[in-house]
Amino acid sequence: MTYTDARPLRSPVRATPATAVIASVVLVELSSGITQGFLSPLLRGLTDTLGVTAADLNWISVANLLASVAFTPVLSRMGDLHGHRRVLRWNLLIVLLGSLLVGLSRDFGTLLAGQILQGAFAGFFPLLVGILRNRSRGADGTGGDAEAESRRGISVMVAALVAGMSFGLVASGFVARTVDSPTAALWVPAVATSLALALTWRLLPESDHRPGGRVDWAGGILLCLGLTAVMLGLGLGGTPGWEWTSARTLGCLAGGVLVTALWVRVELRTAEPMIDVRMFRRRGVVAVSLVTLTFTFCMFGLMVANAVFMGTSRAEQGYGLGLDPFAIALATLPNLLALSLGALLAPAVARAVTDRLTLVAGSLLMAAGYATVQSFHDDQALFLAGTAVAGLGTGFLQHSTRTLAVECVPRDRTSVGSGINELLINIGGSLGAAAVLTVFAAHTPAGRTLPGLSAYTVSWTVCILVSLAGAAVALLYRTPKADAVAEEGR
Predict the structure, then answer these.
(1) What residues does 101 pair with on adjacent strands?
(2) Are 209 and 6 in contact (CB under 8 A)?
């Protein structure tokens, strides 16, 4: 495999202090976390404010994640071609526009439209990785301890992302509790994104290194169409008018699979593909990719389910924790704090027990956490302890999969390598959200907005099994040799 020849590597155009770069990266990831986390405490209330069912709310996750599927490969590739900082600025503007739409939402359609544009936040991580990796290499393009510095940088980014999610939860829950307007908290991400854009506009450095080439628009469009069709079939399957044997459901699923297969063929014949599918011939890439799909399936799949469960009154529905929005925010913190701790500990754990065993441990911790949640959902303390255990495992996997995805590609494809992982995160999350949507729709009685308890127990069981599958797949991972990656880049 060959890539388009790049111009010689040079140092960044403008020297920027390391502390300013790290601070800027943290600010952007904080805004990303706030945008991703602010909505959870509000979900139970939105069923009444917007007149939708709990099953419908899963479309928020599906729409947001599918948009991320479309944005991620395009933004990642454009960052490598046209400059990471330049593309990041436009990326922030897109997210800001979506956040303004969310803030103005008074109906479900407008909220979904805003969430689609907010899905561009998936481009933040690969673009920031490109900036960090550019900075960490030396003049010869290697850097004495570049990989270690890159790993530390990714660890800080994941921790900042989770901190942002935590802050977003608390901020939106606090606004919902103290402000009379039921939609006031929807403005939280607009404020966060505006601050990130204003404060980092000049601080982040740009690199004059350009690998050359173009954006594979045909591949991007085919991938988006194929995955969207599959997600529609999975998400609506089993609902009225979308029975599993109906023509529209089968048409979406079969059509999506065929378009995705066509995308693979097109990418194999394209000189500069959006996603180089040949990389998936390598055992390590496949193992990391499958682990990414499994942990994000559970992480995003249960995001709406657990939030609605915590906000449901046991006196009214026979289950739930009966928490208000601010209490939901606080109750979600154990999971997020444990996730952040796991991301920070992951580099040391990997050095001690290898990357492969870190992946296995993360998946097993998630399975144990979900099993605790399922077994003790009537006990608030044990329920939250279970989410914390799952969060610790998720933190291991958040860091490890993102790091390994970057290290297996040449430096001039840094953003693309990270972007592929972000794409898989969104695909896994979309599959999880669609699966939970299907389960919720099947267990929601006609005329009701909330499902029965069985919708949650089935969802938790599915996530236990998926996490165990992730642990089995992780055993297949082998550390790639540095010279093999370098040879692939020539």
Answers:
(1) none
(2) yes
- Please name the residues in contact with 423: beta carbons below 8 A apart, sequence gap of 6 or more: 68, 69, 72, 73, 122, 275
Q: What is the DSSP string of 465-479?
A: HHHHHHHHHHTT--P
In 3D, which of 63, 353, 36, 369 has the Cα closest to residue 231?
63
Do 453 and 264 meet the contact criterion of CB atoms below 8 Å apart? no
Contact 422, 119 (CB under 8 A): no
Q: What is the mean pLDDT of residues 207-232?
A: 76
DSSP 379-398: -HHHHHHHHHHHHHHHHHHH
Say how far apart CA 268 and CA 32 lie, in whole Å: 33
Query: What CA–CA distance (Å, rounded) separates 211 from 81?
Result: 6
Judged against a pLDDT cut of 70, whether residue 53 lies above it is answered with yes
Q: In the prediction, which pLDDT does 433 show?
A: 83
DSSP 246: S
DSSP notation for 70-84? HHHHHHHHHHHHH-H
pLDDT tens digits, one per residue of 250-301:
999 999 999 999 999 998 888 777 777 877 777 778 888 999 999 999 998 8
C-alpha atoms less than 13 angstroms from C-alpha of 29 in its C-beta half-sphere: 23
87 exposure class (CB count in 10 Å sphere: 0-12, 13-18, 19+): buried
Q: pLDDT tens digits, residue range 103-120?
A: 998 888 899 999 999 989
Let me know: does 261 contact 222? Beta carbons within 8 Å. no
Q: Tell me the mean pLDDT in the region 14-27.
A: 76
Amino acid, single-letter form, for residue 293? L
Tokens of 411: 């430096």
Look up residue 203 and give its DSSP letter.
T
**CA–CA separation, 189 vs 36, rounded Å?**
9
CA-based end-to-end distance of the chain: 8
The Cβ of residue 235 has, within 10 Å, a number of other Cβ atoms equal to 27
- Enumerate the β-bridge partners of residue 242: 239
What does the block give as tokens for 404?
Answer: 């390994």
Q: How far is CA 301 from CA 26, 220, 331, 350, 430, in A?
A: 26, 24, 18, 27, 8
Which residue shows structure tokens 């996997």? 397
Counting every residue, how long is the chain? 490
Name the token pair of 265.
């063929």
Please, is 113 exposed, middle or buried when counting C-beta atoms within 10 Å of its C-beta (0-12, 13-18, 19+)? middle
- What distance lies between CA 363 and its chain's CA centroid? 17
